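User: Hi! Is it possible to get a structure for several chains at once, not just one? Here's what I have:
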Amino acid sequence: MESVWKKLTEEQNKEVKRQMATYTQGAQEIIPTEELEVKVAKSVMEKKPLKIKLGLDPSAPDVHLGHTVVLNKLRQFQDNGHIIQLLIGDFTGKIGDPTGKSVARKQLTDEEVKHNAKTYFEQFGKVMDMDKVELHFNSKWLSKLNFEDVIQLAGKITVARLMERDDFEERIALGKPISLHEFFYPLMQGYDSVVLESDIELGGTDQHFNILMGRHFQEKFGKEKQVAMLMPLLEGLDGVEKMSKSKKNYIGIDESPQEMYGKAMSIPDELMVKYFELITDLSPEQLTKIKDDLASGELHPRDAKMFLGKTIVRMYHGEEAAEKAEKQFISVFQKGTMPEEIPVVQWEGDAKVPVIDLLVGLKLLNSKSEARRMIENKGVKIDGEKVEDMQHLVTMKKDLIIQVGKRKFLRINI
Amino acid sequence: MESVWKKLTEEQNKEVKRQMATYTQGAQEIIPTEELEVKVAKSVMEKKPLKIKLGLDPSAPDVHLGHTVVLNKLRQFQDNGHIIQLLIGDFTGKIGDPTGKSVARKQLTDEEVKHNAKTYFEQFGKVMDMDKVELHFNSKWLSKLNFEDVIQLAGKITVARLMERDDFEERIALGKPISLHEFFYPLMQGYDSVVLESDIELGGTDQHFNILMGRHFQEKFGKEKQVAMLMPLLEGLDGVEKMSKSKKNYIGIDESPQEMYGKAMSIPDELMVKYFELITDLSPEQLTKIKDDLASGELHPRDAKMFLGKTIVRMYHGEEAAEKAEKQFISVFQKGTMPEEIPVVQWEGDAKVPVIDLLVGLKLLNSKSEARRMIENKGVKIDGEKVEDMQHLVTMKKDLIIQVGKRKFLRINI
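Assistant: Yes, the chains can be modeled jointly so their relative placement is included. Here is the combined structure:
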């Protein structure tokens, strides 16, 4: 293997170094880095693309910026001509949870799996070139395994090794039951890599154990072992918990430029650099400059964050939308005025409406209790005036402006 | 369930008690006895036979008296009209050991499995009525399971439960690896009972865990649970280790009347009653009488043991052979003379033969070193004269008698 280095031309060697600098940027762990370098070197020398695998849960196709940490990394590989293997774990999705205890693992129909895969594809298209992506469904090979095949597979791993997985270890320590079928999910993920002959598998750090299964089984099946590439988990807008839909601390990649920009501005300062590193398309040089300038005080954190917001909007809505979102933000939040464009709703109801009913009726807030809380927190303005009375009766008229929180505006038309 | 008792006639009730007395005789553990009683009661009332399962390893068809402990128990069920389900575990046999580490679990071909099953059948025929036995091969259903079925099955048991099996627990404690596929052998055995809808599964005490798997899975699949019936393991002629071919402490059910009788006489006195109980066809009343008479001193242990030997020979070779074996034993061992019938071999070799070559050539002993040892131990006689010289040259002639040990005789014909 090592002999590959001797055969590289100086130019090829430079190219390997360049690619490695890109790939290692932001990655939390690469197991092992040396093997990645050898794979890249061989690929450069033989002009043979590497196969980069990403496994996807078929049941959760809502994509937010937390997911783009790995997607951006995949994009980098793609930019260098490597092949992306998207693996939809539909086999497990179709089985569901045989014990019926896990709500998360509900059984999916073929149609749901297809629909979810399509949703992934559409959303991923905002980060990657989907024409150059291979799409795989693991039911294709897993559903063909019979009992004997399964036993052969199970013969290639020990119980002790499986119990090393953090969550298993923890449950054993707590005396919580592990159903035997659960041992098979890491086996499947590993076997998928055997079938796909993946060179690299990407995932969040929470996939550490499962991705190493790929290495284990590839070796047992006499194949070249994949490299595990683990990306950090991105904290959400709260700065504490992993970004997720259920925690409501996310920026969805389908959101409007204004929402995206506004949410980006609410990221805690400490996380800014991490966001730059993990979810933007800036080059290593640009990143270094931002870090240096922030450290030296040459770049104000507020300006850096505005650049972050603008960059995110640019990535998902284009240059023009990014400029506009920035301008709008400056006019509303920095100058204290309203945005230039406010959505208009046609009002067909009563001439006078209790403020709480109005807020819920216009779907500015989800419930009366939310509306009450917002008024209590002085977050509701009618025509620029703070509402302080819960019982306030709003007189409806054309061009009435209703504002909730910092970023939600509506203009009434009658 | 309990209501079955109220519906039984007095006569039926007596019949249940009679059957229960037979079945519980000699059984080490019945889990649970109450369920067995209910099953027997229902069977008597509804005139519906019970299904009694015995699982067999397809790789070891050499049957000795150790095996007949369960076979005799099956015979008792059969005598009362119940159905015996012999289950050949050919699925595991065909798979072998996927890790290749277990020599015992070598992969068998279809032909070997068939041949071994036939051997079982022939040999079991000496204990049971094979016309009334169902023969099943678990590959019939196990080979049809696909990965999804396996996962559904695995979802019905926890890892903790499997790790309770003594040998797993021990290996975990010693840090010895358990390959994941090993967890599937008890699952298969349990699933076999689901398919066969067995009422009772018989086995040695070493099958405790595996047989309870049948109860577990039958319940999970919504079926009536089988009763586990565990028979003691029979110590071999050495009185210490479990009777087995590899330990050479066994009495094979294919052996000659003389061998059987002679070996029976070498059983340690302490084990005699256990042998009577577990491997003979004596009635509970006969057994009680033997125990009582031995305890009171009315029956001499030597006489009891001779009756044991005679009973065993009668069971496998008939009344006449039993009488003859006893007579012969008395004449040789008690009176110190030769048996009445000595096998004759035709001699075609040299007129003078070194004694060691002769013993090995006639297959009286397996090797020259064994022959030397036997001469050293003064166990070789030619025409009644002890051979003491290793180099002794035997002059071959008609009716020359060669004796090795206490029981092997040959008469030369020229």
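Chain B has a mean pLDDT of 89. DSSP finds 19 helices and 13 strands in chain B.

User: Great, thank you!
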